[in-house]
Amino acid sequence: MTDKKKKIIPKKPLGDKPNYQIWIIVSLLFIIVTLFMFNDKGIAKKSESDFNTDLKEGNIEKLIFIPNQLQAEVFLNEKGAKKFLAEEKKEGEKTMPNIKGVEIPHYTFRVASSESFDNRVSVLLQKKSDKKNFAYEVEMREDYSTYISPLISIALFVGVFWFLMKRMGGGAGGPGGQIFNIGKSKAALFDAQNKIKITFADVAGLDEAKEEVMEIVEFLKTPEKFTKLGGKIPKGALLVGPPGTGKTLLAKAVAGEAGVPFFSLSGSDFVEMFVGVGAARVRDLFKKAKEKGSAIIFIDEIDAIGRSRSGGKMPGGNDERENTLNSLLVEMDGFGTDNAVIILAATNRPDVLDPALLRPGRFDRQISIDKPDIIGREAIFKVHLKPLVLNSDVDAKKLSAQTPGFAGAEIMNVCNEAALIAARHSKDKIDMQDFQDAIDRSIGGLEKKNKIISPEEKKIVAYHEAGHAIAGWYLEHADPLVKVSIVPRGVAALGYAQYLPKEQFLYQTEQLLDTMCMTLGGRAAEEIFFNKISTGAQNDLERITKLAYSMVTVYGMNDKVGHISFYDAQRSEFASRPYSEATAQIIDEEVKKIIDSAYKRTIELLESKKEKLEILAKQLLEKEVLYQADLVTLIGKRPFEEATTYEQFTDNKSDIEEAVTEQEEEKLVEEKINTESSIDTVV
To answer: Of the residues 320, 322, 417, 465, which is catalytic?
Structure first.
């Protein structure tokens, strides 16, 4: 005997399971249609007078009376059938024809009373004794048409209920999309067969956070390394940070690196309109995770279900979100839990989370993910620059220095915008100018090339922005200028000045006051040159007002109010102020003194540099955009030797300072004099 090879039948994927609900609905519709077809809807309906006429004319062959339905069926002979078909054709009605060999009546009619009709037919039969008689039968039948309406109602109710359950259960095709699976978890499972390709190499600028989560992954891969020293794996880690800093990206990297099943879902996936569904989904999620042995669960935006429980609710009220949170707390560190499941969660609002959720034993670690510094931004730029076709002049260090305060998502957007701008100009490679334009768009908004601005308004904007630039150039603690522009951008920005702030976390009083003066430079320049003020300083005034109030009420930088801070992160915006009306009046007075003093100081500074401000404003009107190198050429070097953050980062002098050497200073002075005279001549 020869051994035959066994035929391998491929297994059907999980998504090919038959949908029994659809088959049930199709079967119900088939039954309804069948009953509808057997109904007498296609048979003509006539009155009893028509029957009497046919009876007198001898057109009837057979009459069947159905007493329980108060209905009679008339079968015509050959003579009556010809007359019947002629009348139907004339009136344009379509009725069921009498098929040969099939007992189908030509028409039916309703009767008022079964007894009276039976008596009338008997009388008519007696009067027709001289003519050929017809067959008369009496039958009792079941009326199936009475069941059609209830069946249609039931089918519609089942169909609507099934549709609602499917929509609320997660949509078509998913395991939670069936009628009876609404309490099932909707977490996406990533394992060896369905693995994410993102790894820790794709996450840059988060070295400390990566180290924390990498330790969790390593514990799951090689637990004996830690358990031999008596250590225990942490129950959970909470990723906390502003939007766009890479919390979800880090969780994706954990899913790509972990050698254990990874469940991912959002906090809003637990929220439903039905009571108890959120708690049931939490229990089902942990049940599935425990069935895998070791697993990681990632809950994004956990503040959707983890908000602090308040005690001011109506007695007897049932809060579904609170029940979901209670179920999560029990599953994370309840009486019957073990250490096989690790929870990762992300939120940008840790202040609203319940304290029971943050205690050790549940979220043992809170990993802070802040906006990256200049070194972190360079690493993030290098990651996003890899897939781009770049020119040789693109430098990740320069880009990181020109994007202070940018998060990872914003850096990714800048790189993408640069690629789109280069493609728009039909370039083969992306150069540094494309990145500059992308940064400008990210900071100031889209350039409004077709925005109509009168010459008078443009002049006011030029002097306004020149006032900012001059004030910042001659204030020691102000941020160094990178670029000043009077090109309209965004919704209402007619111009803007871009600065390069230092990477620092502590600010002294002198630094805040210099920043305030620099911000007031635009309003001061308008007053000096036009003896009028405009609405263009609205954003500047808003910023300095907030800064002044923070100096007095938050940072304790006012002698009269004292070393007091009224800031409370937990206090609601509708809560009463934590100080008296008398203190509020003192605060208002001190804030006004600080702003008035800063404005007076700014006026004095710009008065002393009036000629240079005018040179800068006229050059802005001509070129519309000026860079730091242009300011060095027009008004000289900044009179402060402190190195910028970029210079400290690169550990050498900036490109501008390398160009301005001692041998070229005399040449620059001559060029500046020539430039000033040419501007005066042209304008």
So the answer is: 465
Q: Phi and psi at residue 244, in whole multiples of 5°?
A: 85, 5
Q: Tokens for 439?
A: 């940064």
Q: Phi, psi at residue 557, to the nearest 5°?
A: -105, 25
Amino acid at the residue 244: G
Is the whole model's pTM more than 0.90, yes or no?
no
Residues 82, 88: Cα–Cα separation, whole Å: 10
**108: phi then psi, degrees, rounded to nearest 5:** -125, 160
DSSP 8-state assignment for residue 480 = P
Coil vs helix vs strand at 116: helix
Distant-in-sequence, close-in-space partners of 190: CB < 8 Å, separation ≥ 6: 196, 255, 261, 262, 263, 264
240: which residues sit within 8 A by CB, 6+ positions away?
247, 346, 347, 348, 350, 366, 367, 368, 369
Please give the average per-residue pLDDT across 336-340, as a whole number. Answer: 58
224 annotated active-site: no
Contacts of 126 (CB under 8 A, 6+ apart): none
CA distance 325 to 28: 42
CA 242, distance to chain mean position in Å, is: 15
Segment holding 103, helix H or strand E: none
Question: What is the reported pLDDT for 317?
Answer: 41
Tokens 């009083």, residue located: 509
Question: Quick one: average pLDDT of 229-243?
Answer: 83
Helix (H, G, I), strand (E, B) or coil at 301: coil
- Our measurement of the distance from residue 461's CA atom to the centroid of its chain's CA atoms, rounded to an integer in Å, reads 37
Which tens digits make up the pLDDT trace of 635-664? 888 887 665 555 555 554 444 344 334 434
Rounded (10°) angle between helices 581-608 and 509-519: 70
3-state secondary structure 513-546: HHHHHHHCHHHHHHHHHHCCCCHHHHHHHHHHHH
Tell me the three state secondary structure of residue 560.
Answer: coil
Strand partners, 484: 497, 626
Compute CA distances 39 → 32, 34, 96, 153, 258, whole Å: 11, 9, 12, 18, 65
* pLDDT score at 596: 95
- The least confident of 79-83, 157-161, 368-372 is 157-161
| Average confidence score pLDDT of the chain | 76
Q: How far apart are CA 381 and CA 526, in angstroms?
A: 39
Taking 80 as the threshold, does the pLDDT of residue 243 lie above it? Answer: yes
Residue 14 confidence (pLDDT):
43
Under the banding of pLDDT at 50, 70 and 90, the label for residue 481 is confident
User: What is the pLDDT averaged over residues 135-140?
Assistant: 78
Percent of the chain with pLDDT over 90: 16
176-198 burial: b if 16+ Cβ within 10 Å, else e? bbbeebbbbbbbebbeeeeebeb
Mean pLDDT of the 271-286 span: 76
Return the C-alpha torsion angle 639, 645, 649, 653, nearest 10.
-20
